[in-house]
């Protein structure tokens, strides 16, 4: 399963769609404009909240909680490092490696890829492809990638919008 997200330059309030490999809207994500810390709600196209991402406000390094079905399933913690960002996904047995600033990284479980994030070149704007393994929970994978993206952004926020598959 592939999902696509396109980065946009200006966004007062995060609100964007996530498209499937056929260019159809699959989910939409909406941030809270006035809140302490970053908060993102992920909805299916019927308007049901399928995931919630919340930043821990008073933390030395970026830390985000991922909730699915009202239960916290993961905590994304940016690790202290001098040369390149490192992330811990607590609550899931997932490891994250790659180039986060270039949006080229992968999330694995016991060496098996869960989701591979790849920046698509030759597109209008920055488009990111999430290639989610067939055995993985796509909502958990999407919410985890969004939380990592929030932790990666210098101002702690996602600035993405809609994209169809690689166009």
Helical fraction equals: under 10%
Helix count, per DSSP?
Answer: 1
Number of self-contained structural domains: 1
Radius of gyration: 15 Å
Major sheet characteristics: 12 strands, antiparallel, barrel
Write the CATH architecture name. Answer: Beta Barrel
Strand order of the largest sheet: 1-2-3-4-5-6-7-8-9-10-11-12
Q: SSE string, helix = H, strand = E?
A: EEEEEEEEEEEEHE
Distance between the termini: 17 Å
By CATH reckoning, the class would read Mainly Beta
| Low-pLDDT regions | 156-167
Q: What is the typical, i.e. mean, pLDDT?
A: 80
CATH fold type: Porin
Number of E-type strands? 13
Strand content: over 45%
Question: What's the CATH H-level superfamily name?
Answer: LURP1-related
Q: Judging from the principal axes of the Cα atoms, what is the shape?
A: globular
Structural class: mainly beta
